[in-house]
Each structure stands twice: as structure tokens, then as C-alpha cells.
Write a structure and sequence with these properties.
The complex is a heterodimer.
Chain A: H1 2-29, H2 36-39, H3 46-56, H4 62-74, H5 88-123, H6 128-142, H7 145-159, H8 176-210, H9 213-220, H10 225-253, H11 257-262, H12 268-277, H13 281-309
Chain B: E1 2-3, H1 20-28, H2 34-43, H3 48-57, H4 60-63, E2 83-84, E3 95-96, E4 100-105, H5 120-129, E5 134-136, E6 142-144, E7 147-152, E8 158-163, H6 177-187, E9 203-210, E10 213-218, H7 225-230, H8 238-241, H9 245-250, E11 263-269, E12 273-278, E13 291-296, H10 300-309, E14 314-315, H11 323-329, E15 335-350, H12 359-368, H13 371-378, E16 384-385, H14 408-417, E17 421-422, E18 428-431, E19 448-450, E20 452-458, H15 462-478, E21 481-487, H16 489-493, E22 505-512, H17 520-523, H18 549-561, H19 565-582, E23 585-593, E24 596-598, E25 601-602, E26 620-622
Parallel strand pairs in B: 2-15, 4-13, 20-21, 20-22
Antiparallel strand pairs in B: 1-7, 3-26, 5-6, 7-8, 8-10, 9-10, 11-12, 12-13, 14-24, 15-22, 15-23, 15-24, 16-23, 17-18, 18-19, 25-26
Helix pairs in contact in B: 1-2, 12-14, 18-19
The chains are: A mainly alpha, B alpha+beta.
Chain lengths: ~325, ~625
């Protein structure tokens, strides 16, 4: 298996380079640039403007900028943020752990609830529980995050006063319990969308598995329904579900912009949005590369989980 | 030497005074009138530019004379309307020493470095941590800060500042004259890349005769020198500058921020909050509060929720609410919503090309723009109508100009007079001014085109989007085909933005004026950018100069270089009349700011002239 892992990781290097080059090119195709805001400064002379462009490296042709950036990347240097004047890695690392807290909490809730809802809905398709979960799913998918988040804030923070409305910690600081209190509303907001979509995946793949021959065989052997369902059916039904989750998690880790904005959560989504509006190319490139790396790792982990769920899958 | 703290006395005869500094001091002390100062200075043969400098020093050039009546106390008696700011908040209850106030704002600073950023939210934070030689208060009056007094040479070229003795930076370094010299050097260092050098770039020589005296020599008499250098960028410790360009850019303003102000920088948690604490060794009156915490709340709805729950107790300056959100906040019973005018003007920037080079077409667009409906119905009269580029709170404002009403019939009449007719599709069309004509209001001999305008605005603000939609709907109904574009700031103002396409475009956005009414950067031909990435503020005239360019050039230049305030005021009145007649842009309204403060907070005194923490040492909580 270790050879498989090493081969996959080595194979992803050209992929990541491709992502880097394409991201760079697309980014420079976008209108505007990091110097736009200086151009609109009535107190900025042409000489000052030229000096700022030179310091940013924007006075070089784009292919020179790209080669320079790739050279630095290969040495582990993501560059310096145009807007914050400090290393991109420091900028990202300031907020990345916060997003990990939020996303892992939200997705853990999603995973448990979606599995539970999906499997139970599949046992009696079109029954009351299935209809109930279908309604919840469509509600979760259709509902705008900013509206749902605001409703949660008004209910739990303003009306009931049970939970803080936003941010990651109380202004005066606090320990683990304080963090947990602040996590509840944003994590649930992130979870609701995933629960909605994932439970539908689990439901449909479980229904498909329930119709397979091995299920009939297992039942014919006299196994209890619960054993068949949770021991055999679910294990097979999870294989396509793992693929979906493995793609979703890295995407969430690189930014749940709306949830982070509504709940003032200091995470990657807000960083990406801010960098985008300021055309802070080095930060944007850093986040995109990190996202690509996470997707590669996520897919690798998914492949490894396939092998655990389905022993027929061999790593060669 | 000039003391900025007034020591009022009996009126004196200006003819008894024989020196620049004595005249300035007498004016600050309220013992002679502004007119007497000017007349006596001219009688003494003091050059007109130097008189301009003197008027800046007395705060007369920026906004009338200092007046104690402006400091009326604001009490917390709020009904359902915002309370106009007339002084610091003074809640009922006993003042408490200590405590923390949590301030909310929507935008996070990019850096707290005073020399590197242009963001108002950064100014708000460092205005409590760092100090300049002088400072403006909320009545727009110059006050002493790190300099206790100053003197201007008779030729107006040399300034001598006496530094306040016994002041130390937050890192323990004493404030000495060398700090000022080092700050000037780093601001002027091109490799460092300060965001603004204006004022500082007039200095040709700077010396320190002793540890607490700084002498600056300027290349020419420059009236706003005290505004841009005296009350401009703050003085920072030399020991930080000495750490090198990289450290001074990357670490200072992020890992640490060191000044002499009433609060010290404690920590900055990215995208979450900035914590400031009381400076126990502050040279002035000790702050009442233990801490001020600046919370980043990017969503306005969330900020409103946090004001309701008390998680945020104050927002103001760059974080103040807009007109629509103020309506919601007045319903909360734990806060008071304040109101003050600003010098920010919302307008439609017209690109002078094709039909938009013609005065009658621009006037037609003004008649077709339902500004009054926007102000009254959408914004609930929480803004002021604007007719030109100088705010009603500025001394140079011309009150005699009335806004044009919404009148579609006048629009049609003016378009017809401009040679346009309504086509079968209902869209106005006709010959455009020839590209090579210098008189676009003369007979139009250029290509026949339809009157189609792209209307651009910054995406993300529901208020802006609604205003744009109202205007677009109105224009379309009249037969001016209008297509709406919402983009981010970088796109709108970038080379691919509306300014640099060869179509007829308009852009809705806000400019904020400085304390001086100088509007030359907006309209003068020298300010036309020569390429899409070149500097220059007069972007409406990028393709073609205004049809009234010579006139506006002359007026704005004369107004910027005239020092007699009455004469200058008359020039600005003429400029406003010309702008209202010619409409280089369509003026819509002057914004008002709506700071919100918890009912137990005293000493808070926001204004259009100050940053948030300018008087943080006076903030307090009541028991």
C-alpha cells in the first residue's frame, strides 16, 4: 500500500503544477489588478505608482512573473501578500486552523445525521420518514445560508440568549467551552446543506444496494434485518458516498464564504474573498494551491477507504 | 511660538501686532477676527501664500472659527429618530473607571501601519495608538498633540515645532526630534512605498537644534502644510524604522504597533479582533477604560444582531451604519443611534464621450434621475440632496443652488434641443459630436448613434443596487436605453472598467472630500489620466476634455491658490454654479453617517473630521 501512496503522491506533482499555471493565467485574465486601488488615490503621483508596481513585481511581463512565482513555489515560498505586506504562508496559517475547527465539526454532524437519515429513509422508500427527510433535504438545499444563519442568530442569540451570535471567541477571551458555544450555530449552518445533499446520496445508494442479490442471499440465510442493513448494505452503499465526501471536505476547508461571513468566523473563505476583491494574487494562488493539495490528499484517503469498505479493491 | 490651546482674553487691536506668530496666536485666543488677521497681515506686507498658512494654523481656512458652542453635551434622549451629534455622549449614571468597550466594524484593516494603508478602518485603529504633531478635533479645530507649539517664519518657508517634553513611546523610547526626521526620511523613501507623501515632499531640509525642537524648511509656501504634515501621518519610533525596510513593512503594523497614544496595541487575531489597552504612561489625561476591542463583523445584519445582544457596544467612523440600517437600529432599546453629516458625495460619474459630451444631454439625464424619490422614499431623508461637490458643512458651500426636479418632459425637450429624436423602438438617437470637434455643443456632425448607456456600480450593497435599479428604470422608461453592470471595485476602476471602454457609461459611487474645499484633483485638465493604468483623478474627461475645461481649469486653480477666504469662497461658489450647470457628473446626495453607541457609554464624539479613537482617553462606561 505504501508504494501505492508514494506513486499517487508523485503522480500528483504534475497535476499540481498544472493547477498552479492555470490558476495563475486565469487570475491575470480577471479584470482589474492589485494596483487599481492606488490608481484611484488622488494623492498618488505617477512616480509613487510606478514604485509600488515595481515593488509588487507587476512591472514585469506576466510570463516572467509566473516563472518567478513557480521558482519560489518549488522552494516552498508562496510569496508576500500585496495587501498585508507579509508572507502568504503566515496569512493563510492565521486562519486555516479556524476553518478546520468549523468544517470538521459541521461535517461530522452532517456525516452522522446524513447516514442516519439516508439509511432509514431507504428502508421504507416513500414512507412517512422518507417524505419527512425529503422535505428536510429540499429545505436545506433551497435555503440561502445567509438567511438561515440570520434566523438562527435571531432565535438563539437575540430571543433566547442561549448562544453567542457570531465570531469564534468572546471578545474578552474564553476557553474550550467558549469555543464550543461559538461553534454551534455556524457548524449547524454548514451542516444543514451537507445533510441535505449527502442524505440523498446515502438513500439512493442504499436503495440500490437493497435490491442486490447478496441482500436476498443474506436474508435467505436468516440474518436479522438490522444485521443485513448496517453490516452488509451500508458497507456497499458507502463506496460512492465516500467519493462525494472526499471531494466536499477539501472544498469546505478552502472556504465556506457565506457561513464565515454571516458568523464572523475568521476562516479561509473570508480570506479568499478579501484577497479576491483586492486582487491579492499571491494569497489567492496560495489558497488555490492549498485547495488542490487537499483535494489530492482527500482523493487518496478516499481510495484507501474504498479498500477497507470493499476488500475486492486491491492497490497495485 | 504658537500655543494651540486658546487663552481667551480681551479683544485687541490687530494693528498692535507686528509678527506672523503673534497674529496667529491672537486669532487662536479669539482676540482678533479672521478678517482683522488677514487685513493686518497684508498691511504688514506678509505675502498672500503665507497668509494662507496662517489661516490653516488658526483652523480658519478649513472651517470657520473655533466655537465652544459646538461642544454642547449630548444627552441620551432618543425617540425613534437618530440624534444629531453636537458633542460627546454623556449618559446618566456615575462614571466608572475601567471596563472594556467592544467596537464593531465591517472591514478588517489590511495592516495597521500608518504609512502603508489607505483604509479608513486602519485610521480608526491607529488614531488611538499613534499621534501626530498636531491633531484636528470634532469641531475641525487644530489642537496640540506631540508638538505643544510651533512657529512659522515670516517668509512662510520654515516651520519650527516644539515637541512635548516627557513623552515616551509604548516601547519606552523617549520622543525626540530625531524621530520626526527619521519619519520624514522613511515616508520619502521610494523603496518603502508610503501611500502618501503629500506635504512631506515639500520639505527640503529638516534639522533638530535640540532634542525637542524640529525645524522644517519647505521648497515653497504651502498652505495645507500643517494639515498634511502637522496633523497628518503620526510620528513613529526610530528604533522600529532602524530594523530595516522588511521588518518595518511586515512586522510593524501587524505584530506590533508602537506610538505615543492613550491606548497600546495588545494583539491582532486575524479576521477576528484587535485588542487595545490603556497606556498607563500616557502624557495626557489617563484613559478611563481598561481595554477597547475592535471586532471584525463583516456582515451588517450580524453587526445589528450584535448591537442588540450587547456583544458589540459601539460602531462609528468607517464602521458607522448607513441610512437604511440606521432605521433598524433606532428600534433597539439598549443603544442610541447618532447622526452626523459627512463630506462624502454619491454621484453618477459620466464619461464624456459621444452624446455625454453635450451639456443638454447631461442636463436631460439629471432631469431623468429621480434623486428626490431616492432620497425621500428609499433613504427616508437620511441623506442630503447635492447639487455640486462641496458639502453643506463646509464653509465654501453655496446654498443658493437648487437641485433639478425629476421631470421626464424636460428630459425629452432637452434631448430634442440636442438634436435627438425618438426612434421606432422608443430609444433616442441622433448625430453625435464629431470626435475632432472642440465644441461638442455646436452642430453635431459625428456618427448617428442611439442613446445607450451602461450604468456601472459596485456589487454587494443592497442600497447601491436599489439606487441603480431605480435610475435605470427611470432612464429606460424615457427612452434612454440603460444596461446595468455590477462589478467589484478592482474591475470597475481597473483598465477594463467603465472608464476606459469607448461606450457611453456612467458609474455610481462615492467620493469623500478632504477638509479643504480644494477640488482641483476632480476636474482639472492636469488630472486627466493619460493611460488606463496611469495616475489621475479626472477620469470622466479621459477620452475628451470637458466642454467647459478651460473655465473649470481657471477657476479651480485660482481657488486653490487664493488665500483670502471671502474671495476664495466666491470662487468656490462660481465653481459649484458651473458644475451644476454643466454637470460633469450627476450629483445625487451627501451621505450621513449613523454611529451607534450603547446607552452607558460616555465621551464618544464622532464627526466627519476625525477618526474613531481620536478622543478614546475620554470614553467611559457608567455604572
Amino acid at each position: 500500500m505504501s508504494r501505492f501512496v508514494i506513486r499517487r503522491l508523485l503522480g500528483s506533482v504534475p497535476l499540481l503544477l498544472g493547477v498552479a499555471v492555470l490558476s495563475f493565467l486565469f487570475m491575470h485574465l480577471a479584470p482589474g489588478g492589485p494596483d487599481t486601488i492606488y490608481v484611484k488615490n488622488s494623492r498618488m503621483s505617477q512616480a509613487q505608482l510606478d514604485a509600488i508596481r515595481h515593488n509588487m513585481g507587476l512591472d514585469q511581463p506576466e510570463h516572467v512573473q509566473l516563472v518567478r512565482w513557480l521558482g519560489n513555489l518549488l522552494q516552498g515560498d508562496l510569496g508576500t501578500s500585496y495587501s498585508q505586506y507579509r508572507p502568504v504562508w503566515d496569512v493563510i496559517w492565521d486562519v486555516f486552523p479556524n476553518t478546520v475547527y468549523l468544517v470538521l465539526t459541521g461535517l461530522s454532524i452532517s456525516l452522522i445525521v446524513a447516514l442516519f437519515f439516508g439509511v432509514l429513509a431507504a428502508v421504507r422508500p416513500y414512507g412517512i420518514f422518507d417524505s419527512f427527510t425529503s422535505f428536510l433535504s429540499y429545505f436545506g438545499l433551497a435555503m440561502p445560508v445567509f438567511w438561515f444563519g440570520l434566523m438562527l442568530q435571531i432565535l438563539f442569540a437575540v430571543k433566547l440568549g442561549w448562544l453567542p451570535s457570531a465570531s469564534m471567541h468572546s471578545a474578552q477571551g474564553g476557553g474550550a467551552l467558549d469555543l464550543v458555544k461559538h461553534l454551534v450555530l455556524p457548524a449547524f449552518t454548514i451542516a444543514i446543506g451537507s445533510i441535505a445533499s449527502w442524505s440523498r446520496y446515502v438513500r439512493s445508494s442504499t436503495i440500490e444496494s437493497l435490491g442486490q442479490d447478496y441482500v436476498r442471499t443474506a436474508r435467505a440465510k436468516g440474518l436479522r434485518d438490522q444485521t443485513v442493513l448496517w453490516g452488509h448494505v451500508l458497507r456497499n452503499a458507502l463506496v460512492p458516498f465516500v467519493t462525494v465526501v472526499s471531494i466536499d471536505i477539501p472544498l469546505y476547508l478552502t472556504g465556506a464564504v457565506l457561513t464565515e461571513t454571516v458568523f464572523s468566523w475568521p476562516g479561509m473563505g473570508r480570506l479568499f474573498y478579501d484577497a479576491l476583491t483586492k486582487r491579492d494574487y499571491p494569497v489567492l494562488m496560495g489558497i488555490l494551491i492549498l485547495g488542490a493539495v487537499l483535494i489530492v490528499i482527500g482523493n487518496l484517503i478516499a481510495d484507501l477507504i474504498y479498500g477497507i469498505l470493499d476488500p475486492r479493491i486491491k492497490y497495485a | 511660538m504658537i500655543r494651540l490651546i486658546p487663552q481667551p482674553g480681551e479683544p485687541i487691536d490687530a494693528d498692535e501686532l507686528h509678527d506672523v506668530n503673534d497674529l496667529v496666536q491672537a486669532r487662536i485666543d479669539g482676540r482678533i477676527s479672521r478678517r482683522a488677521l488677514v487685513q493686518r497681515a497684508l498691511a504688514l506686507g506678509i505675502g498672500a501664500p503665507v497668509v494662507g498658512v496662517m489661516l490653516h494654523a488658526t483652523s480658519d481656512l478649513v472651517k470657520g472659527a473655533p466655537s465652544d458652542s459646538r461642544r454642547a453635551t449630548l444627552t441620551h434622549a432618543q425617540d425613534v429618530e437618530p440624534v444629531p451629534v453636537s458633542g460627546p455622549t454623556q449618559p446618566e449614571g456615575e462614571m466608572q473607571e475601567g471596563g472594556t468597550i467592544v467596537v464593531g466594524t465591517s472591514e478588517e484593516p489590511d495592516t495597521l501601519h500608518p504609512y502603508l494603508t489607505y483604509l479608513a478602518t486602519t485610521f480608526d485603529v491607529y488614531s488611538g495608538v499613534c499621534e501626530s504633531l498636531l491633531e484636528y478635533d470634532s469641531t475641525q479645530t487644530l489642537q496640540p498633540a506631540l508638538a505643544t507649539e510651533f512657529a512659522i517664519s515670516p517668509d512662510g518657508l520654515t516651520y519650527t515645532f516644539k515637541l512635548r517634553p516627557g513623552v515616551t513611546f509604548h516601547n519606552g523610547d523617549p520622543l525626540v526630534a530625531q524621530n520626526v526626521i527619521d519619519c520624514w526620511k522613511i515616508i520619502m523613501n521610494t523603496d518603502f512605498g508610503a501611500w502618501q507623501q503629500i506635504g512631506w515632499n515639500k520639505i527640503t531640509d529638516i534639522t533638530a537644534p535640540d532634542e525637542l525642537t524640529v525645524v522644517m524648511t519647505t521648497e515653497e509656501v504651502y498652505a495645507p502644510f500643517l494639515t498634511y504634515v502637522g496633523a497628518g501621518q503620526p510620528i513613529l519610533p526610530s528604533s522600529e524604522i532602524a530594523k530595516g525596510l522588511d521588518a518595518f513593512k511586515q512586522e510593524f503594523g501587524r505584530q506590533r504597533l508602537i506610538g505615543t497614544g492613550p491606548v497600546t496595541f495588545v494583539e491582532w487575531k486575524a479576521k477576528e479582533q484587535i485588542v487595545l489597552a490603556r497606556n498607563e504612561t500616557y502624557w495626557g489625561s489617563k484613559p478611563h477604560l481598561d481595554r477597547v476591542i475592535y471586532r471584525i463583523v463583516p456582515d451588517t445584519n450580524t453587526l445589528l444582531v450584535q448591537l442588540q445582544t450587547g456583544e458589540v457596544q459601539l460602531c462609528g467612523s468607517a464602521g458607522a451604519l448607513g441610512a437604511l440600517d440606521a432605521d433598524k437600529a433606532v428600534a433597539y432599546d439598549n443603544v442610541i443611534v447618532l447622526e452626523h453629516d459627512t463630506q462624502s458625495w454619491q454621484h453618477l460619474d459620466l464619461k464624456h464621450i459621444d452624446f455625454l459630451r453635450m451639456t443638454k444631454v447631461r442636463q436631460a439625464l439629471d432631469f431623468a434621475t429621480p434623486s428626490r424619490q431616492i432620497i425621500e422614499q428609499l433613504l427616508g431623508n437620511r441623506v442630503l440632496p447635492s447639487v455640486a461637490d462641496i458639502a453643506p458643512i463646509n464653509w465654501a458651500f453655496n446654498p443658493n443652488i437648487q437641485p433639478r426636479p425629476y421631470d421626464p418632459e424636460m428630459t425629452k425637450q432637452l434631448l430634442t434641443e440636442a438634436g435627438l429624436t425618438q426612434g421606432d423602438d422608443g430609444i433616442w438617437e441622433g448625430p453625435t459630436p464629431a470626435p475632432d470637434t472642440t465644441d461638442p455643443n455646436g452642430p453635431a456632425t459625428g456618427p448617428v448613434k442611439k442613446l445607450e448607456i451602461e450604468l456601472w456600480a459596485v456589487a454587494g450593497s443592497s442600497q447601491t443596487e436599489r439606487i441603480v435599479q431605480i435610475i435605470a428604470q427611470s432612464w429606460n422608461e424615457i427612452g434612454i436605453k440603460t444596461e446595468v453592470h455590477f462589478e467589484d471595485v478592482s474591475t470597475i476602476f481597473g483598465p477594463e472598467g467603465y472608464t476606459y471602454t469607448d461606450k457611453m457609461t456612467a458609474g455610481l459611487y462615492t467620493w469623500t472630500n478632504g477638509n479643504d474645499p480644494d477640488d482641483l484633483p476632480y476636474w482639472h485638465s492636469t488630472q486627466r489620466p493619460t493611460c488606463p493604468t496611469c495616475s489621475g483623478f479626472n477620469t470622466p474627461a479621459y477620452f475628451f476634455p470637458f466642454n467647459f475645461q478651460a473655465e473649470i481649469d481657471d477657476l479651480t486653480y485660482r481657488a486653490a491658490t487664493t488665500v483670502d477666504q471671502e474671495e476664495r469662497k466666491q470662487l468656490y461658489w462660481q465653481i459649484q454654479e458651473l458644475l451644476h450647470e454643466e454637470l460633469p457628473v450627476i450629483f445625487i446626495y451627501w451621505s450621513r453617517d449613523y454611529p451607534v453607541v450603547a446607552k452607558n457609554i460616555g465621551g464618544f464624539w464622532p464627526s466627519a473630521f476625525t477618526n474613531l479613537l481620536w478622543n478614546v482617553e475620554q470614553w467611559y462606561l457608567t455604572q
